[in-house]
């Protein structure tokens, strides 16, 4: 089954963009997924093809018109989940990516300007998604990130079915560190355990390093993974049962 990606955007020329190369590009050529950018401006009804207007109540910037965007969404509605890329959305997780990759595909709505008229989310079933706590010029880069995360999980895209099993976030931990040749570089050597040939010891070392690195670099992940007490940057102790 082909994973169908429809992208509603003011800049359809941005797609497939980097997804036309490497693993995603090869999968696109093999028909494992499809890419269909749709120009939102085509659904404007005035002679100027207006897609935005000034914010109600005043303020800087412009807001995407609900009538235009809703018409664009309705034109491609076919039961696939509709996701809007917006910093107001729920953070994208690997768990959600896996769910999406197992489905028929997605319709992605790319925001611009100050964002969307809120009535759009009241009138249509749309999942608001964020890829991080920062602001981009528009939703297109977020859409590319979301699609890349999904495409690599499609059957036959990665070389081995187990390629992604130990990666960061798949088990709730960051991935363990990797090494390769040369064995010695600038006085630094590959850890002895990785050269031992003892697979049980190697697995234990990798698990331990994943736990250590997660705890030190991402205490939020560690707390969710273990339900342990984690010290916040302010020095206060947070507990699992705190609200």
**Low-confidence blocks of residues:** 229-243
Biggest β-sheet: count, sense, barrel?
5 strands, parallel
Any idea what the radius of gyration is? 22 Å
Distance between the termini: 44 Å
The secondary structure category is alpha/beta
Query: Strand share of the residues?
Result: 15-25%
The level of helicity is: 25-40%
**Backbone shape:** elongated
Please describe what this structure looks like.
With 243 residues, the protein is α/β, with parallel strands linked by helices. 29% of the residues lie in helices and 19% in strands. The protein has helices spanning 22-29, 66-76, 94-101, 119-123, 140-151, 199-217, 219-226; strands at 3-9, 33-39, 52-53, 63-64, 82-91, 105-110, 127-130, 184-185, 188-189, 230-231, 237-238. The strands form 4 sheets. It has a 5-stranded parallel beta sheet with strand order 2-1-6-5-7, sandwiched between helices. A two-stranded antiparallel ribbon has the order 3-4. It has a two-stranded antiparallel sheet with strand order 8-9. The longest helix is centred in the last third of the chain and has 19 residues, at 199-217. The two termini are 44 Å apart.
Q: In terms of topology, how is this protein built?
A:
Layout: E1 3-9, H1 22-29, E2 33-39, E3 52-53, E4 63-64, H2 66-76, E5 82-91, H3 94-101, E6 105-110, H4 119-123, E7 127-130, H5 140-151, E8 184-185, E9 188-189, H6 199-217, H7 219-226, E10 230-231, E11 237-238
Helix pairs in contact: 3-5, 6-7
């Amino acid at each position: 089954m082909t994973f169908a990606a429809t992208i509603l955007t003011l800049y359809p020329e941005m797609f497939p963009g980097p997804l036309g190369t490497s693993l995603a590009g090869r999968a696109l050529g093999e028909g494992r997924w499809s890419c269909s950018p749709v120009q939102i401006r085509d659904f404007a009804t005035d002679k100027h093809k207006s897609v935005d207007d000034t914010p109600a109540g005043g303020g800087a910037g412009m807001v995407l018109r609900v009538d235009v965007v809703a018409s664009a969404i309705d034109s491609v509605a076919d039961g696939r989940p509709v996701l809007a890329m917006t910093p107001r959305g729920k953070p994208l997780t690997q768990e959600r990516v896996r769910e999406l990759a197992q489905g028929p595909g997605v319709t992605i709505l790319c925001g611009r300007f100050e964002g969307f008229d809120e009535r759009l989310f009241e009138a249509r079933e749309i999942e608001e998604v964020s890829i991080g706590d920062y602001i981009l010029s528009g939703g297109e880069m977020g859409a590319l990130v979301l699609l890349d995360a999904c495409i690599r999980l499609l059957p036959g895209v990665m070389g081995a079915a187990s390629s992604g099993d130990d990666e960061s976030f798949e088990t709730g931990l960051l991935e363990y560190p990797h090494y390769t040749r040369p064995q010695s570089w600038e006085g630094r050597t590959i850890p002895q355990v990785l050269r031992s040939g003892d697979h049980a010891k190697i697995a234990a070392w990798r698990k331990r390093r994943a736990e250590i690195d997660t705890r030190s670099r991402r205490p939020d992940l560690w707390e969710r993974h273990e339900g342990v007490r984690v010290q916040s940057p302010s020095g206060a102790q947070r507990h699992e049962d705190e609200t």
